[in-house]
Amino acid sequence: MRPAADDLPRHASWLALKDAVTALQGWQGHDGSIADPGDHAAAQARVATAVDALTVLGTVLPHDQEHLAATAKDLLRWAEGGFGVPDFLDSLTAFHPERQRVDGRVHLVLFPMYTQNGSTDRHLEAVLLQVRWPQVVAELEAQQFSNPMFVPVTFLDFTAGYDTNSAVLFPETVAVREVPTFTWGAIFADREAARFRRVVQAAADTTRLALPPDAARLLVDQTLAEETFVLWDLVHDRTHMRGDLPFDPFMIKQRMPYFLYSLEELRCDLTAFRAAVRLEAEGVPHARLVQYAVLFDRLFRFPVTGTRVRNYDGLGGQLLFAWLHRHGVLHWTDSRLTLDWPRVPQAVLALGEQIEQLYWRSIDRPKTAHWLAAYALVAGTLEPHPASVWAQGPPALPVDGPPKGLTDAVLPDEFPLSMFYEALARKLGDVVASTRGIVGSA
Asked: Where are the domains of the chain?
């Protein structure tokens, strides 16, 4: 009898694998290699332990057996080659979770990789994960929101690289000899939901925000929150490749002012919000909850998370807050936050329309003109830094040179936190820090 998913983190072979990987991490350099020959004998022994564990776990997870066998071969080749920069292309291309989107399906991955919002080292990381594929999401993906690469998951257990703020598993982070065609991307819905619940509850308490009953229920029900985030992520993720796109939507390939990243991420969130408004009118479960999730995560968690250096997610949250405030649906009076709930959807949709219009018009604009128009959109609602060169307009900017000059002119914190957010950050700082490594059972 195969062990249940909840028992796998205590399985002897998983524990042996996790211990071996942790030891190997201690010898690895930034690029994943083990430079000191004096460590190689001990590393060889740990690789042998890991290979044995993968062989056993392949019988426990027969749907991953081919992938885990390829992983063992990649490990052995790395060791036999003298522990240089690892190459796990074969095991990566053998892993296809997008073909097995079955609620509760367990996978095991072991890759040399960095973890976004976690570690920049390309160390070995082992993760036990479980697919999260609610029926309502499966039906919507099949009927309205096709996204064959999207794989929502939850944690069962993990090594140190995921005891961080990372909530994604992307194949492009894995060390490989050549870039393959990517066919999947995984997002950990349990971490997203758990940190959302903790931070938003603290923010609501701090600001004395009266929550509607269904929003309050979202903050106390982890399962409901996970299902809500899976639906939000489904629509958000596919939006990066849809619409009037004046640039490569995966902007990691380009260097440009960070406020453009802000608008792209916010565009995708507000597209999910718009879809949720429509789905609510059609009677779809979770649709109204998606609206609350987008709103509260953007307003409360994003602006006070991370540093102030090119924090594009934080900027998107600041912009949404200021937009709602200026349109009279959000109020901060007598040290209490209130929202005019019936008017919130239309105000949020209006901001989304502004960004869509920016994208539509920018297809006909030169790159510099698009950047300036995007800045004007943000600065029309948010107050720029007093020292901003961008705020002075084209006469002060190197618009006649290469785009790099314009990017370099953007301040690390071009749009500083408002006094509201400065105060909120002080009160929520410890709460945000406490969500590092959080999982659904927390």
From this structure: 8-183, 191-433
